[in-house]
Write a structure and sequence with these properties.
This protein is an alpha+beta fold. It contains four helices and six strands.
Length: about 180
């Protein structure tokens, strides 16, 4: 029935969104190498409004341990530096008048373990989101009138199979991220 398909599709879309969110969260967890995603959420006070850093400067990674930020407007260099310091990323920016350089320090073993725990926590939060999507789908199935019990049972089995598949995918993502973090 079409109603059942709509409910299952909705559950699948919510689970897909949870995986995308997990991937985005993992981009922010550094694994020892410099990446432009480390600073993508930094907001710079620029002409009275908060602006994403990539809209006021060119952000690049010249090598594995350095992030280079070159403002398009030199007057914004101090505002960018201040935004990086206030963002609590743990970087001490150095500025040569044209460019801001962020040196990404190598990770200590303890910091790697903390980041691996953070990745696992993100994975657990995503699993909760997936299970909530399953629960919402099951509630929607119970609300349906005029649909045979067999069809509802089949739809419930499909939703549970989707949940199991997504939980397995989350575990794989977490395992891969932990391995990336722990790799020296």
């Amino acid at each position: 029935m079409e109603e059942l398909d709509v409910i299952i599709d909705t559950v699948k879309q919510e689970m897909d969104a949870a995986i995308r969110h997990l991937d985005h969260a993992f981009q922010k967890i550094r694994a020892g190498r410099a990446s432009t995603t480390m600073v993508q959420d930094v907001m710079v006070e620029y002409y009275g409004s908060l602006t994403p850093i990539n809209q006021v400067a060119n952000v690049s990674v010249p090598d594995a341990m350095t992030i280079s930020i070159q403002p398009w407007d030199r007057t914004a260099i101090n505002a960018i530096e201040k935004a990086i310091i206030n963002s609590n990323l743990g970087f001490a920016p150095s500025n040569n008048g044209d460019t801001i350089i962020l040196n990404v320090p190598p990770l200590t073993e303890e910091r790697r373990r903390d980041l691996a725990k953070q990745a696992k926590a993100e994975g657990d939060n995503t699993k909760v989101t997936v299970r909530n999507a399953r629960q919402d789908g099951m509630k929607e199935l119970k609300k349906l009138d005029g649909v045979s019990e067999d069809l509802i049972k089949n739809a419930e089995a499909d939703i549970q199979a989707l949940t199991d598949q997504y939980v397995k995918t989350i575990d794989e993502h977490v395992k891969a991220k932990e391995a990336d973090i722990m790799k020296v």
